[in-house]
Amino acid sequence: MTKIMSYNVNEKGYYGEFGGAYIPEMLYPNVEELRQNYLKVMAEPEFQKEFNQLLKDYVGRPSPLYYAKRLSEKYNTKIYLKREDLNHTGAHKINNTIGQILMAKRLGKHRIIAETGAGQHGVATATVCALMGLECIVYMGEIDIARQAPNVARMKMLGATVVPATSGSKTLKDATNEAIRDWINNPVDTHYIIGSVVGPHPYPDMVARFQSVVSEEIQKQLVEHENTSNPNYVVACVGGGSNAAGAYYHFLDNEDVNLIAVEAAGLGIDSGESAATSVLGHEGIIHGSKTLLMQTNDGQITEPYSISAGLDYPGVGPMHAHLYKSGRAEFISITDNDAMNAGLELCKLEGIIPAIESSHALAVFEKKQFNPNDIVVLCLSGRGDKDLETYINHFKL
Amino acid sequence: MNRINQKLQEDKKLLSIYFTAGYPNINDTVNIIKDLEESGVDMIEIGLPFSDPLADGPTIQASSTQALKNGMTTKLLFEQLQDIRQTVSIPLIIMGYFNPMLQYGVEAFCKKCQEIGIDGLIIPDLPVDVYHEEYKATFEKYGLINVFLITPQTSEERVRYIDSISNGFIYMVSSASTTGAKSGFGDEQTQYFDRIASMNLKNPQIVGFGISNNDTFTQATTHAKGAIIGSAFIKHLNEHEVNKIDEFVNNILF
Predict the structure, then answer these.
(1) How large is the angle between the packed helices A203-211 and A93-106, nearest 10 degrees?
(2) Which of A125, A214, B53, B183 would bridge with A246, disulfide CB 3.0–4.6 Å?
(3) Which of A367, A373, A344, A348 is nearest to A356 (CA)?
(4) Euclidean distance between CA atoms A80 and A218, whole angstroms
(5) Is B74 exposed, middle or buried (0-12, 13-18, 19+ CB in 10 A)?
(6) Cis peptide upstream of residue A62 (ω within 30 degrees of 0)
(7) CB within 8 Å of A193: residues ≥ 6 apart
(8) Long-range contact pairs involving A219-223 (C-beta distance under 8 Å, separation at least 24)
(9) What pLDDT shows up at residue A354?
(10) Is B183 or A229 the better-scoring residue by pLDDT?
(11) Can you say whether residue A119 is alpha, beta or left, with left for phi > 0 and alpha for psi between -120 and 50 degrees?
(12) Is residue B247 classed exposed, middle or buried when 0-12, 13-18 and 19+ CB atoms within 10 A define those classes?
């Protein structure tokens, strides 16, 4: 974990030219406290022990690396699915919230705040707060609250307070703004659990490290299957980019392993209804980080669109901006329709109902031809239970 | 000498007012500035609206959203201010978030400010060290004073660092919070004002956040050189549009 990687963060919190901590002075003490402590805390044997124990006994790790035989036959290549969908709470999000709640406890914080879009990260945060007996406040856009009622109910059952974000566009980016404002107003006793590899340094690095268990397991599991720890490709969807960061992490500096990042094209790149940040965004600052983001010429942040609430973010984490700009990762964008079809295909061929976020990654096989001997590991970041209504409406089931 | 430095030398407590450019109506900018000067305000912060103003409370957020809806842009604000120095002589500061400046081009932005006669900038999300390493030379080339914020949580060491790279005044945020009036100042604030005053910094301090009336203005300026009012003035504009600005200012000062 302490290995210095060239595609990884530098001491000042930058990935190439991206990253940093563009935050108001009011946030500086909170972020600085975290920056000074996160590596130290994570390196403590006791912390590692507790983190790994919870990942094993509570989350259910390691998640399987499953050889998808029928899908592989169809696309004439070797496809492995990293089954993050089998984690407790149904997605990779819990890897990070477990890590951050332990971090918060060690920093002496007793009040937890989080932002959520579709509600997956909110549920994962509410879950670990219940586990640790800490107060939990989740900010969620008013519009998202209306369209994600089951996850709102889950958070409430888990004891969290869900606060509607009513400013701006009333979705994820505004929920993030509200969480940051809460942290400004509560600088001493509160920890902010950011759900993705976004935000000011050290968040992108800290979240990537907590998610890096995904690629660590892939390396070990692939040896059992294929007698090598290196796949030819790692494929993951990118909204903010936390599951991708976790799936790439241990392969970042191994250029034998190709990285593919899948973004949501929404109704199409040129439709005006898209979330493909690498294509439509340019460099700027969002939520305290210098990265690629969708914005007007005047520098106002615009509202993205995707059928998948988890990919519906106007920026990407600074690690991904760097992977894009340096050419280390190949970025592919997938429309709503192609994603939905790929999701349904996985149901029929493998008996797995994927989250629509993960369906975007699955749609890569229709877009890109792999060689028969290629080993392609795809991060199946979440399960599709939360998306049933969207699937029902889309396919008129 | 920069107008801000000149103003700071005057033997009086300074009142600075913030408003959001393009609010309540797109073409109110120049009239508000003129009225504020005529009403006896010492310095003005012109807010360049941003879609995601992290450091602001609901009042200024709402005014920013409305200003953007009204069509305010960086380019338009500069056009509106083009001839402002023909009529207005008090210091003018642009306050805004870093992304719109970055998109305009930091150097082009600074150059335009100099052409218009803007005296300084306040950019809450431009970190001190990034400014120091990347932009200080550019700001100074165009004669702009950059104003930094400190809060009750800012360490003494960091306050001294900020003081060392400042050349105008320090914006002293009254409490750990976003913008918007609270109900007066308590012991905590008084102690904080005292503590900073006793540090004998080279830059004078002007207090902002939570100042809304004569009481809070007087309290804030007991130890500091001046005070900044933002949200309370935006609320005035909500109620009265651009009317009765002199009454608002009188109520603060007397």
Answers:
(1) 120
(2) A214
(3) A344
(4) 10
(5) buried
(6) yes
(7) A96, A97, A100, A101, A104, A112, A113, A114, A121, A125
(8) A219/A250, A220/A62, A221/A62, A221/A64, A221/A65, A222/A65, A222/A80, A222/A375, A222/A377
(9) 98
(10) A229
(11) left
(12) exposed
Active site residue B45: yes
A187 contacts B65? CB cut-off 8 A: no
Chain B neighbors of A141, CB-CB under 8 A:
none
φ/ψ of residue A171, rounded to 5: -130, -155
CA B77 from chain centre, in angstroms, equals 16
Residues of chain B found within 8 Å of residue A24, distances taken between Cβ atoms? 54-55, 124-125, 149
For chain B, what are the domain ranges? 13-253
Residues of chain A with Cβ-Cβ distance to B97 below 8 Å are 285
Q: Is the pLDDT of residue B237 over 70?
A: yes
ipTM value, please give it.
Answer: 0.95
Tokens of A11: 């001491």
Residue B185's pLDDT is: 85
> What is the distance in angstroms between the Cα of A18 and the nearest Cα belonging to chain B?
13
- Percent of chain A past pLDDT 90, that is, above it, reads 93
> Is the minimum CB–CB distance between A107 and chain B shorter than 8 Å?
no
Q: Is the pLDDT of residue A1 over 70?
A: no
Q: For A299, which of B57, B99, B178 is closest by C-beta distance?
A: B99
Read off the tokens for A237.
């969807």
Residues facing A282 on adjacent strands? A293
Question: Is A22–B130 a contact, with Cβ atoms under 8 angstroms apart?
Answer: yes
- Cα–Cα distance between A133 and A131 in angstroms, integer? 6
| Number of Cβ atoms within 10 Å of the Cβ of A294 | 23
Residue from A11, A184, A192, A291 to probe the interface with B (highest B Cβ count within 10 Å): A184
CATH topology of domain B13-253: TIM Barrel (3.20.20)
Residue A146: the pLDDT is 86
Share of chain B above pLDDT 70, in %: 99
| Residue in B closest to A174 by C-alpha | B52
Q: What's the rounded mean pLDDT across residues B25-51?
A: 98
For residue B208, list its beta bridge partners.
B173
Instruction: Tell me which amino acid residue B31 is.
Output: N
Most distant CA atoms of chain B, gap in Å: 45
Q: Give the residue-averaged pLDDT of B142-149.
A: 98
